[in-house]
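Renewal narrative, Specific Aim 1. Our central claim is that a sequence can be written position by position from structural information alone. The example that follows is taken directly from our test logs and has not been curated for this report. It begins with the structure tokens describing the chain, in the order in which they were read.
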């Protein structure tokens, strides 16, 4: 039996992970307010195993530590705003104490082709998918819009969303009796794209979450709003992300975290 890899034996470092993620989801595509890239860790640290998750939680840190992972790719940045202190229990502190490096792609993965929004569109079976809104002529755009072929009654499309995303429930605003042919999608929070969704001609807007007044605006603009809870639209992208990383980092084990889940339950 071969012995486990040591620092001297390692063929990859965290710096290789950073470069791989920068190729998969270029940081230049992220929103200006976002905090993407390596947020915790040491680029020189050896790397043999990477854990992929939507959220870095204490449970995910424990899973990574128990499994011998050297790095976590956490979609949401665990260090987001300026911090004056890092204390026991804080995610950045606990990740560093566990010897973990943490890379976060967040909105860069939303925007890039084949990323978070495209994963939702593929799951829902949308065709002729286009960006919902472009910020610049040279980027893939924010959100997506695509077509259902054939069109479905809204109640049947809601059933599809639940089935394809593996959810026992969704939140719906609007009539379930109308026909749905054109669908707008925004992984995560969708409030900023309600206007763009309506302008695209969508009859349904699927996203992770909407505020009360945003949901009312969807209905007023003639759309059925379907929300899944924030991270349930984002988690769909993790298997493809893990596969791309494994391809980029030959010999590194890349696994989707089993302890990652949306924090909300319906009881």
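The sequence written for that structure reads:
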């Amino acid at each position: 039996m071969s012995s486990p890899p040591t620092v001297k034996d390692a063929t990859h470092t965290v710096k290789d992970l950073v470069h791989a993620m920068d190729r998969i989801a270029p940081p230049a595509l992220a929103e200006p307010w976002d905090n993407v890239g390596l947020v915790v860790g040491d680029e020189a640290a050896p790397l043999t195993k990477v854990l992929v998750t939507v959220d870095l939680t204490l449970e995910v840190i424990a899973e990574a530590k128990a499994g011998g992972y050297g790095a976590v790719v956490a979609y949401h940045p665990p260090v987001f705003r300026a911090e004056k202190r890092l204390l026991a229990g804080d995610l950045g502190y606990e990740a560093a104490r566990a010897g973990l490096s943490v890379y976060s792609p967040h909105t860069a993965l939303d925007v890039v082709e084949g990323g978070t929004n495209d994963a939702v569109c593929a799951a829902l079976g949308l065709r002729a998918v286009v960006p919902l809104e472009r910020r610049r002529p040279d980027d893939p755009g924010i959100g997506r819009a695509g077509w259902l072929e054939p069109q479905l009654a809204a109640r049947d499309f809601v059933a599809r969303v639940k089935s394809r995303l593996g959810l026992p429930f969704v939140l719906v605003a609007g009539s379930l009796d109308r026909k749905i042919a054109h669908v707008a999608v925004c992984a995560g929070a969708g409030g900023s794209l309600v206007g763009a969704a309506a302008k695209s001609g969508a009859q349904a807007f699927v996203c992770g979450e909407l505020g009360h007044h945003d949901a009312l605006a969807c209905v007023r603009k003639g759309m059925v709003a379907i929300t899944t809870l924030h991270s349930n639209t984002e988690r769909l992208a993790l298997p493809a992300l893990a596969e791309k990383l494994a391809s980029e980092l030959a010999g590194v084990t890349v696994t989707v975290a089993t302890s990652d889940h949306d924090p909300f339950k319906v009881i």
